[in-house]
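pasting for the record
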Amino acid sequence: MEYFTYRDGAGGRELFAEDVALSQLAEQFGTPCYVYSSAALIDRFRAFRQAVGDALVCYSLKANDNLAVVRCLGGAGAGADIVSGGELRRALAVDIAPAKIVFAGVGKTGGELADGLDAGIGQFNVESEDELHLLASLAVARGVRAPVSLRVNPDVDAKTHDKISTGRAEDKFGITFDRAEALYARAAAMDGVDMVGLAIHIGSQLTSLSPFEAAFSRLGDLCRRLRTTGHSVSRLDLGGGLGISYGADAPVDLHEYGALVQRTGRDLQAAVTLEPGRWMVGPAGLLLARVIRVKENGNKQFVIVDMAMNDLLRPALYGAWHDIQSVAPRPGDEAPVDIVGPVCESGDVIATDRAMPELRAGDLIAVRDAGAYGAVMSSSYNSRPPAAEAMVHGGEAALIRPRLDYDALLARDHVPDWISGP
């Protein structure tokens, strides 16, 4: 089902989010503004869970940590994949059951590990021997046992963008296969530790099944070797990374991916945990922006909008492609334009040579598939307050994160008394 669609009205065609006109949201909440469809979030979660069978599905908060988004998915049955103490607090704040929280990440601090233990979370994905010893000591001091999965690095190239590949030997994540068996054995003998399984995550935005197949196969080999030497491996955390279509990309078929996941768990007789993020929330959100002006420079036409790289970093950071639509397109031929923001950087470009209908000052555009790694990566660069966030539910709409005003932005700073004024 499509949740952002054009509808015909007295004023012509207009883009809607569920049953709410985007022009109404722009007037109500201002621009730039992220807009999420609650129906899309819930339906995508249900489709994913149905495809992967009995696997525990832990939504990856790093894709979008807005409390309304997390509660929406948690209410549908999702657990949480977290990578920081802040994300732990967000998951707990919206009543995600601690037993359904997985704590991943290569740089967990002692304080963060302690918070996870105190909350009673279901799994720590340990990525180094140092982290293992620290976690064990913290657990012993509390008289508890930490449920641990060892994250291994399968040295599999996900064939995705270099900055979001995490399963190659040269990447910082996980424990190399040649050290994994020995470390698993040492961990199994430690006080304060319950070794429950193995974990992998090879990257984000995968659009081919073959890297998953290679990584799962290597993990299966390690699982069998550990069991041969008497170790219990009851869980397999297969990570996330399933990609979406941003335009040219042809995503992995969900049912083929689900069949691979179910086959892996069945063949290895282990419970499976999965950590989707982008797939769950990317297509469920868009970024609404307003045209400030249209400018001609030589043969180039620049459409300058009120969103910028501080609101959506992906195009500047990764060269990412997003479909962009006019909210109320004028009839007539399309022409190539560069869509750019007002930030004082040449890299503040949302799209280059993009065919668009005629756009004028005051018009609205929608940047599609912006629900993942959009608002969560935003900043106040150039002292620009990040975009607001709203959610629709049928014909209802609510502001779920307001845009800071300038006073609130400035109030975060403190000038010491010993700095003299002009």
